[in-house]
Amino acid sequence: MGWIVTEWQKLRPYFSLLDFGTRPSTRVGWAVRVAVLSFAVIVLWKRIGAVAAPLLDAKPPPAIPSEEIEDYRFRLPERVRREIFMEIAGPEAAERKRAIEHDKWKGHLWSREDDRGHFERVELRQVALRNKITLSQVYLILDEGIRDHWPGPDGEPLPATSPPLDPRSTW
To answer: 115, 133, 111: which is closest to 124 by C-alpha?
Structure first.
């Protein structure tokens, strides 16, 4: 046990070199300070570069042409767009029904619609992945279907309106 105390006493002066709260009093202390700070700056610089490089080097995605060929919009024929719209409209109707049945927001229409919209965003990401298209294309197809009154799974078009914002006075 005595050898541990002896070794600790030998190492104690070196630990004082790592005390950045005080000014170093020796050249070795300054050398350690410069080495540690240089290492920290290099690590920080590499980390910032790794995080910022993809943001700075990213190229914008190509624009989605609206009408290249007859019956094509958003790089898809109308038949495919309608299939994707039905893929979106089915869960939306079920989600609206679920939101009404659970009444999580105690009759507050805007909050219920906002909650439903969250689940819609999650579903639209999945639709984009399944169909190998961008999320922008999915939203454009949804917009086209609503504007052109395409029938949903129940034969009725999706509603094009949303409840007006009515801030809750209590949570």
So the answer is: 133
